[in-house]
Amino acid sequence: MKTAFITGITGQDGSYLAEHLLNLGYKVVAMMRRSATPDTSRFAHIEDRLTICHGDLLDQSSLMRLLAEYKPDEIYNLAAQSFVHASFHEPIHTSEVTGLGVMRMLEAVRLQAPEARFYQASSSEMFGDVFETPQRETTPFHPRSPYGVAKVYGHFATVNYRESYDMFACSGILFNHESPRRGLEFVTRKISDHVAAIAFGETNQLALGNLDARRDWGFAGDYVRGMHLMLQHATADDYVLSTGTTQSVREFCRIAFAHVGLNYEDYVVVNPKFFRPAEVELLLGDSSKAKNVLGWVPEIDFQGLVEMMVDADLKRRLVMGNRPTRGSLPEGLV
């Protein structure tokens, strides 16, 4: 039985990845930071199948201790301060966790688990003010946020350790990937949750920033399959994972509201406070390398993703016995 070590288990990707690896027969060791009120909600349904341990990307010794103890075959570094907007308000913390945290982990792997295969969660935000469209593995980076800058650092640290120490170290340059497990601070989940709240009469308005920003949005469950495939290949490399299609925030709103029979224009307002100091207008990925080399193909399309997220937020309210006061429930939820 292979052992996988995952940082960032409390996040969206960590929970989907753990689920996927357990289904493949792995022993999954999940690292969490110690907290007075730990949030295990995203993986509560599989918690009894995980080996939970405590460590922190800010604490080098904890990483070395855990790798020495569990001797994993595969290591997935998903932990980060991952909210782009917050990185403008917390640039130093973001740099420490999202940037230097990768270096701490790589050094721990080099010293304690040099034969392990390592995955680093890179991001399309590294492309920022893009040099070409679509973006691929060879596209130069021009990040437009402290988060993007920190991710570039972690990405090149991974490349450096691969080249310097012959470590099996991969970076997945993942474009936006969403799900019902996405945090409420992210625009996609903010939209889906507000659509449900508006349908149930809990609120009557959704305030957003740049409605014309365009992203390449996919389903997180599809993307964790790609992470795993990268570590099964014969050689370590970096791969873009994306759908190859792009939609605007406005289009996300249109589909989400239409799913409950409402017009987004009646409820969405633009608030300048949600604009980024430096905006990324268009991200569109070319994942042909991952498709050709790894055989990875995303299965959930954009409309299916949006409707899945809205349905999940509607169901949360339905199980509490509430009923909608606006629009209509999608077929299958009635």
Describe the fold and architecture.
It is a single chain. This protein has a domain at 3-178 and 219-241: NAD(P)-binding Rossmann-like Domain (Rossmann fold, 3-Layer(aba) Sandwich). Helix 1 (12-23) links the parallel strand 1 and strand 2 (27-32). The strands form four sheets. The chain has a seven-stranded parallel sheet, with helices on both faces. With 334 residues, it is an alpha/beta fold. The protein has helices at residues 12-23, 60-70, 84-89, 91-112, 146-165, 187-199, 220-232, 249-258, 288-294, 302-318; strands at residues 3-7, 27-32, 51-54, 74-77, 117-123, 168-174, 177-178, 206-208, 214-215, 218-219, 238-241, 247-248, 268-270.
Write the layout of secondary structure elements.
Blueprint lengths: L2 E5 L4 H12 L3 E6 L18 E4 L5 H11 L3 E4 L6 H6 L1 H22 L4 E7 L22 H20 L2 E7 L2 E2 L8 H13 L6 E3 L5 E2 L2 E2 H13 L5 E4 L5 E2 H10 L9 E3 L17 H7 L7 H17 L16
Parallel strand pairs: 1-2, 1-4, 2-3, 4-5, 5-6, 6-11, 7-10, 8-13
Antiparallel strand pairs: 9-12
